[in-house]
Design brief:
Layout lengths: L2 H14 L7 H11 L4 E5 L4 E4 H15 L9 E6 L3 H12 L3 E6 L4 H10 L4 E4 L2 E2 L2 E2 L1 H9 L6 E4 L9 E2 L11 H4 L8 E5 L5 E5 H15 L7 E3 L6 H14 L3 E3 L5 H11 L2 E6 L3 H6 L8 E7 L19 E4 L5 E6 L8
Parallel strand pairs: 1-13, 3-4, 3-5, 4-10, 5-8, 8-9, 12-13, 12-14, 14-15, 15-16
Antiparallel strand pairs: 1-2, 6-7, 10-11, 16-17
Helix pairs in contact: 1-8, 2-3, 2-4, 3-4, 5-6, 8-9
């Protein structure tokens, strides 16, 4: 069977997979039952990790917090999305509350974020308080000032944003009412993401799960090795390659943000052989640094930016790790490269 035929078979199986019948919040709850004490997500820069049971509890707590406000089903929340476990909690919590998340990668300009907030009539804006010690308060209030529909601003920490609701990490409390913490049927909730111009694009959860299953098959992602992501789940490609692939495969997911060369190398040393999720634009630098054939990486998943039309990446070393490329929309862009059938991959 040719590689092209194998890819078509994997894609067809992914579309027919029974997991595409569930929403992302159901995947979180299922993982909490199946592997409660296994690492679900971590932040490599701080070393903080949470297991699947704690991830599920934090999602329930975030959902309860959201329901203490007067949001109507289907209202949209703009999520300024850093590569972090807190972003994952917020994204799933919004979905399980019956609201629609619209993710905005932090690399977007204030103007693009504000245009996106207006386009989707965002009822709320949720964002980290700081990234790498730098406050996002000015950015957050700048966006809100240009989006009249925003009636609530929420902070994910670390630290706080003056005047914002604190949605910082917490587990579900015994004082939370059952109604507040119970998920609603949410598999039909759409997930939105802003492109580089601030235009929103919406995706069905089933389609994203199908795309991630196809990626898992192509990149051989499994629970035996961690995923290290340099890409925000605020892009659909980053969501498909990172949180979704981790949930569906059982692989622990570690984020690194902001990027720092020394912290990156330290994370690779700490995690052992890993599969890396990186921007397509960074692949040449990784190749030049010798990381693709160093043994530190089992595979690379290269995520294209919206509008990026770069050709398929060709590593310089014949024994570089395999690379799979996906678009900003999560669609596979090119056949996997490298010795896919090699034992141990």
């Amino acid at each position: 069977m040719s590689l092209a035929d194998s890819s078509r078979r994997d894609d067809a199986l992914a579309r027919a997979h029974p997991l595409t019948m569930f929403g992302l919040d159901a995947l979180i709850a299922g993982a909490a039952r199946l592997r409660p004490t296994r690492i679900a997500a971590g932040d490599a820069s701080t070393g903080a990790e949470i297991d699947h049971a704690e991830l599920d509890r934090r999602v329930a707590a975030f959902r309860a917090d959201l329901r203490s406000f007067d949001f109507q089903p289907g209202e949209r929340i703009l999520l300024l999305a850093a590569p972090s476990a807190a972003t994952l909690v917020a994204l799933i919590g919004i979905i399980s509350a019956g609201l629609e998340p619209v993710a905005a990668p932090l690399g977007l300009s204030l103007g693009a974020m504000a245009a996106g907030a207006r386009a989707v009539a965002a009822a709320a804006l949720v964002a980290p308080a700081t990234i790498g010690g730098e406050s996002l308060e000015e950015l957050v209030f700048g966006v809100a000032a240009q989006a009249p529909s925003v009636r609530l601003i929420g902070s994910l920490g670390p630290g706080t944003i003056d005047g914002a609701v604190d949605f910082g990490p917490r587990s579900r409390s015994e004082n939370d009412s059952p109604a507040a913490t119970r998920a609603v049927p949410s598999k039909k909730v759409l997930i939105g993401a802003l492109d580089q111009y601030g235009a929103p694009h919406f995706h069905e959860q089933a389609g994203l799960i199908s795309a991630s299953l196809g990626l898992i098959a192509r990149a051989h992602v499994n629970g035996s090795a961690p995923l290290l992501s340099l890409v925000s789940p605020g892009s659909i490609g980053g969501l498909v390659a990172g949180p979704l692939a981790a949930l569906l495969s059982g692989a622990p997911l570690h984020f690194l943000a902001p990027f720092d060369g020394a912290a990156f190398l330290a994370a690779l040393d700490a995690l052992g052989p890993a599969r890396l999720i990186a921007p397509r634009a960074a692949m040449a630098d990784l190749d030049a640094a010798g990381l693709l054939n160093s043994g530190a990486l089992l595979a690379c998943i290269a995520v294209h930016r919206a509008g990026e039309e770069a050709p398929a990446f060709e590593p310089s070393h014949p024994y570089s790790c395999p690379t799979v490329e996906i678009g900003a929309d999560g669609a596979l862009r090119a056949p996997a490269r490298g010795p896919i059938g090699r034992a141990g991959y």
